[in-house]
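Worked example (supplementary).
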Amino acid sequence: MSDEVIRLVNVSKVYVSAGGVQTWALRNINLLIRRGEMISIMGPSGHGKSTLLYVIGTLERPTSGKVFIDNVDTTLLNDEELSKLRNSKIGFVFQQYNLINRMTVEENIELPLIKLGIPRSKRKELVRDALLKVGGELSWLNKRPVQLSGGQQQRVAIARALVANPPIILCDEPTGALDSKSSEVVLNILKKLNNLGHTVVIVTHDPNVASIARRLILIRDGSIIGEKFI
Amino acid sequence: MINIVDLLLLAFSALRERRLRAALTILGIAIGPAAMVAIIGTTEGYTDTIVNQLQALGQNTVVIFPAKDYKLSNNDVNKIKKLSYVNDITPFYQSRGQFRKPDGTSMMVTIYALDLNLLNKIVVGSKLAEGGIPPQSLYTNCVVGNDVVISKGIKYYDVGEAITVYIPTMKGDKLVISSVSFRIAGILAPYGTVFPVNPDASIFLPLQAGKSLLNIKDYSGIFIIAKSAEVVDALVNELKSMYGDNVEIVSLKEIAKTVTNIINILNNLLFTVSSISFAVAFTGIMSTMFTSVVERTREIGILKALGYSSRDVLMLFLYESIVMTLIGVIIGIASGVVGAHFIAYRPLRIAGSWTVVSEPKITYLLILRALGNSLMVGVVGGLLPAWKASKMVPVEALRYE
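After joint prediction of all chains, the assembly is encoded as:
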């Protein structure tokens, strides 16, 4: 297995408004992330951090350049193939948890497994394992997300991100909506996941959050302006 | 690949969340198949009954009635008898009268004086329950329909007893009610109402009684029995060329054909009317699903981030509209069947005394038609919103507030 898990080559992303005005969200990004790395991408709001994360996560297609995930050029894949890749290789953790409130915790966590076509009985087992791995309680399973605190919801969101055991976990401001105590819990979980072998990429504007990673990428105006190894 | 059971469960979960809206949409969907099954099922039931009754009367029978000032006579009978297509013939006198039963109720009866030996050829399938056909010479003897002697399950008259009927007749320019008594020689088994005659409420007399008892001078018409149903059209054409506008020619075969045509036109019209409710269901489904797509924009983004493809999202939303449609169709068809029986419960009254009692005709084809139309409405109505959902850009959907 190759050491490299994510590679971006000359990636640019340009948004064109209805009036034809071009906005460069990313400019010639070159980035290589190795398997098992934990990296933080830091920069001020509106400077392209989230766009970079979404491009890595194949939720956005780059305007130019190449994005390789596990040595597969994702810019050549169609919608069905990209979805399959996201489903099996990438887990997302969002600032606002992005849980579906009409579903129970169990139904939320099992969503990636449904897409994978895993049988119902096996899904239940995997959902429990994932929830326990993030320090969740089995009593949450039949609750709705709104019945949980912010920190608990984020733990459920992380459980959902890792339930299909993807090698990559992408986090967009994972502690942005949490108090300091809950933030610490969430960051510890991410560290633990990294120790278990998951490649974790965290986008944040908070230096404290960024500092949990061994590698720090600084981004400004859509360009990587620096890189630090802590 | 998501399996169908999971798709259905996800669809149910989404519909459960919006119970009231889903229930109202389902109600809107149910109206189409309900209207179609109830209306078409009822009219097809009536069609079958009417056509069967007409066919039961015999497709060989042609009746002519004098028109304008023309008077039918024995000359006409003899002329027609010679036509190659004619098998049997009898002139007849016809009158209406009121008959009072011992229980105090009165009924209108139709009185025919004709060659009674041809009775079962004219009223095909009629059978004597009691007694016999009186000879032509005993013109005060009659054969009566079942309703004449039996009322509400009670039999008031037996063979050999006399009945009296009040018949309005014109004497000069005065209307006179005269009473005429007949002796019952035979009682017909129950026959059922049949257009254009109601044998159960009729009294059949020998031909001579028309002049002697009913005081009718000229024949009311002539019953002609053709050799076969196939030659009826040719016989009618021959009669037309013989008489022109002097007689009205009624062929039961032609009536059956005309009635069938009219009912088919009516059916098509009713089908069109019931289709309007499908159009309403179509807009209902579409607006419900569009609203749902907008409300669940963020959810669509989440699903895509979790690895659901555009096709998966399309199927998820499409299954929701199909689930609503299927529930609506089941409710609609069930209500339609109940509705059809409710409508058919009351007899259809045509031309005063002629009533048709019919079971609704709910065929598999009708149910399939209702199901097919509804599913088409559900799929097409749900397709555009589902397609819109599937085409959402994941990042934009995730950022939707």
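Two points are worth noting when inspecting this output. Residues 252-295 of chain B form the longest helix (44 residues). The longest strand of chain B covers residues 86-100.
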